[in-house]
Write a structure and sequence with these properties.
Blueprint (H helix, E strand, L loop, with lengths): L2 H16 L1 E2 L2 E2 L5 H6 L10 H14 L15 E5 L3 E5 L6 E5 L3 H6 L5 E5 L8 H7 L4 E3 L6 H23 L7 H24 L6 E4 L4 H13 L3 E4 L33 E4 L2 H9 L7 E3 L11 H4 L2 H7 L7 E6 L7 H18 L3 E6 L9 H7 L5 E4 L5 H6 L3 E4 L4 H7 L4 E4 L8 H4 L6 E2 L2 H13 L1 H17 L6 H10 L3
Amino acid sequence: MNKKLKELEMNFTILKYQLHIDNISLIWPLKSILYRGYPQMNFLESKILLNLKKVLNILRFKNINIPKIPSNEIPIFFSDLVDFKYVYDLQTLTKVFENEYNYNIIKKLDTTPFEVLYYDFFNILSTKKVKQIASPRRIPAESFIDWKLVKEEQHLSSHISKRIKKLEDSGEVKLAPYITIKAIPEIIRWYLTWKKILLKFKDSPFLFLINEYSPFPYFGVVWAKKSGIPSIALQHGVIHPTHPGYYHDPENVAVNPDDYINHVIPTLTLVQGEYERRLLLKMGYPKKAIRVTGQPRYDFLAYSDDIFNRDKIIEEYGLPRNRRFIIWTTQTHGLSKRENIKNVQEILRAMKVLKDKYHLIIKLHPGENQKAPLYKKYFGDKDFATIIDGKANTYELIYISDALITKHSTTGIEAIAMGKPILLTEFIKSVDLSLYTDYGFDYILRSYRDLIEYVRLIKSGELLDDFERKRAFFIKERLAHFGNATQRVVKILEKFI
């Protein structure tokens, strides 16, 4: 177990009883924040600025009315604004700008749900995008927030801050200013917002969530439980043994119906494969609360050849037609400066050897600096590399590539699903690669020479037979029901309607 996570888990035993409102603990949605260890607040995150942004957000959503929908007919879906992108309609196999998790599920349901949109409350730049996506049945969570709720938030935040100060003065815990200035008020706001949402839709057949452990959706799970509404969570990203959103000492998982001090888990958690099911069982989840469905957002990858056109993709991105492609999905923001520099140096060295036949696609992660200063410094003037924005369609780029380079990104899962070998960077040993190495994907890059050799083996076909054997087992374990996951999820949801 990760030492840092184990230490935090011990602190939660103290904090879960201290940081609560009406016997509902506030600590669990803070878990991933505490695990990441946010630094000291800087000027741009000052209390004054945060309060100003809060006021601006309330004013701009003031005129969006909460629709009058019969609450006993409508399931509630949670949609994270970040997850709206170009996805593929499973019926028409055409590209649409929609929520990649929910779109195809909702389209197959017999009823049209009500969707709560969420994005960073303090982000004042997304108004246009929110209003573009919003509709009478899909509205921002901020629409439920009024001055009365804000006043109650401030009152409760003040009480919680005093409790934290007492704990810190006694030496029991030490929390960064970020927690008391930004995180606690925000968490209380979402606590009150979900209370308001589920009072309005108190007769809904279920609440469907993605990323259910983060501050906003977590309180959806809590208030659904208090309201007697089943909550159903779909696996959002990678679940691994030390994931702070999923890892719990079993003693910290709520079992009794009236227990809200311990971590409240959804009525059902729908996971990608058997591996995730086994992992959640170890983390205190009851057997009846887990169902293996596969991942609906990957179903369209089973139809890649019907969806993608190599020539059109090459033309769209301005790539050379007389080259084969290697895609590198970067994770600059999650790695050390030293490792990032070593990565670009080694891959550049290999590409200087491969450049006559291969072209490198550097696909930025959406969460990193899109100006790409590091990549432009090393690759900006090279005609054998193209740097592509994080918002671009990764699936298209994987499709035209012979192999994918990554560290431990979920793009590796997507590449495996599409039958593309994954090459794992370990020029400097850092992040655990077991997500892939446990399944035999041990094509690890420790030197530029490794990249050159693996590309040779892929071209000759020697590596591909080995990869295909491992891929078959991986899909069975980690992407169960590949191509049919959406239908499996829909069947489960329809039982609740």
